[in-house]
Write a structure and sequence with these properties.
By secondary structure, the chain is an alpha/beta fold. It contains 14 helices and 16 strands. Helix 3 packs antiparallel against helix 6 and helix 4 packs antiparallel against helix 5. The protein binds adenosine-5'-diphosphate (ADP), aspartic acid and magnesium ion (MG). Adenosine-5'-diphosphate binds next to helix 1 and strand 11.
Length: about 425
């Protein structure tokens, strides 16, 4: 069971979580995010630490510390447990204060970002102690391991977790941190990574279910932050959910579906604030055919590669892909014509090097501020007149690229980001009649 930031962000929510995790008879591993707003605050602190004037960072640390003091006062009534909590939180804030005196490195930045989950789990564990709920707090850094490519090392995670759990053969309830992991030093699974932690753990222990508890009643057909009227989807296949997560549905971390899919473990998306709502179940079977949802992914860069040498040539695509491979930059969308190839990437870390090398074989144009809009549904082409409806609905939008047919459950469009809101609204009407 994974609980997101909002689900643990208030003392009364921690109380609610304690009730949800104690109602099942099965052994349960609970993964917690940082209290809502904490990771954002830690990112801001880290950024402020890069400036020579550390005053801004000091103020942000003080503000966050006050928030935690107030939280503890409300959460814990038992004097001795409250004293323990204050001691623990003081230690974490001492660390944050010391960072002002050290020069900021990548490793220190990751240490700073890890404080949120470390604090939330320790506070929740103390709350359970106060409520006399028997449990064990497992440090995620003891088993969540990355490999040399910065990807979760599933084999090692499985082995280490097994060893850790074997130390408590009769224990029924475990609490651990989402998001954080270790490589040589403390690291993380990128923003929103607690979902990924939960899915990896579920797969590692071959759990009967992986429940993601959040602040909404499941995956909706469209982004509820952008569109007024959206509806929850009852069932999704792993493939559909993976596409929605990867292409921007914030409710799930972009790559969190694969571990559960690999072990065929159903993933349920549930609402902590409304526990009786059906939510969404993600499993092997999609349950139905046709369009189910649309998601959007921002900060996309389009690269248009043109060369007349491509005419009747073979091996040209290989040359292009080798450049992206060399700079470890994944391609999301791709379209080709006789003399041009267009691709999109979401990572501009090596953009200059990529463009320089591509310029040796072709002419290259780069467009920033693009958004991928992905329409997802099992055997999407079986939706009655899906393409007609889609393109009629977004008639006024200047579409830059189209991908269709690559998979049986996805149509992706590339549009300039300034048109995202309008596009999602038009699709809501045209394809979902909402
Ligand atoms: P948590 O802190 O629990 O991990 P997140 O904020 O990461 O929660 O994810 C839940 C949020 O995702 C929702 O509040 C909603 O605003 C947003 N969201 C974006 N797209 C979707 C979607 N298609 N369905 C449901 N929620 C979505
Ligand atoms: N706390 C981390 C974040 O805000 C991880 C998570 O919430 O999933 O990104
Ligand atoms: Mg999240």
């Amino acid at each position: 069971m994974k609980f997101g930031g909002t689900s643990v962000g208030k003392p009364e929510r921690m109380h609610q979580v304690s009730q949800l995790i104690t109602r099942n008879a099965e052994t349960t591993i609970v993964v917690l995010s940082a209290l809502s707003g904490t990771t954002n605050a830690l990112v801001e602190i880290s950024t402020a630490l890069t400036s020579p004037d550390k005053q801004n960072a000091a103020e942000k640390i003080a503000t966050l510390e006050k928030k935690y003091s107030a939280f503890i006062n409300e959460l814990l009534q038992d004097e001795s447990i409250r004293a323990k909590a204050n001691e623990i939180i003081t230690e974490h804030f001492e660390f944050l204060k010391i960072t002002q005196k050290i020069s900021l490195s990548d490793a220190l930045n990751k240490d700073i970002l890890a404080q949120g989950e470390l604090m939330s789990t320790k506070l929740f564990s103390l709350y359970l102690e106060q409520e006399k709920i028997d449990h064990v707090l497992l440090p995620a850094l003891d088993f969540m391991q990355l490999d040399a490519n910065d990807e979760p090392d599933f084999g090692v995670i499985q082995e280490k977790l097994k060893m850790v759990l074997a130390q408590y053969p009769t224990q029924k309830l475990f609490i651990t941190q989402g998001y954080i992991c270790s490589r040589a030093e403390v690291d993380n699974l990128k923003r929103g990574g607690s979902d990924y932690t939960a899915s990896l753990i579920a797969a590692a222990v071959k759990a009967s279910v992986c429940e993601i508890w959040t602040d909404i009643d499941g995956m909706h057909n469209n982004d509820p932050r952008v569109v007024d009227k959206t509806i929850a989807i009852e069932q999704l296949s792993f493939d559909e959910a993976a596409e929605l997560a990867y292409f921007g549905a914030k409710i799930l971390h972009p790559t969190c579906i694969w571990p559960a899919q690999q072990e065929n473990i159903p993933v349920k998306l549930l609402n902590t604030m409304q526990p009786t709502a059906v939510g969404t179940v993600i499993k092997k079977e999609a349950g139905s055919v046709g369009v189910k949802a649309v998601a959007a992914k921002d900060n996309i860069i389009a690269i248009k590669i043109k060369s007349t040498r491509m005419l009747l040539a073979y091996g040209f695509l290989r040359q292009i892909f080798e450049v992206f491979e060399k700079y470890k930059t994944p391609i999301d969308m791709i379209t080709t014509s006789e003399v041009a190839v267009s691709v999109t990437i979401d990572n501009d870390l090596h953009l200059n090097e990529i463009v320089t090398e591509l310029n040796n074989i072709a002419s290259v144009e780069v467009e920033h501020d693009q958004t991928i809009v992905s329409i997802v549904g099992n055997e999407i082409a079986k939706t009655d007149a899906v393409l007609t409806k889609l393109f009629q609905a977004i008639n006024e939008i200047p579409v830059t690229m189209v991908n269709y047919g690559g998979s049986a459950h996805n149509i992706s469009l590339l549009i300039p980001s300034e048109h995202k809101v309008k596009t999602l609204q038009l699709i809501n009407k045209g394809l979902f009649n909402l």
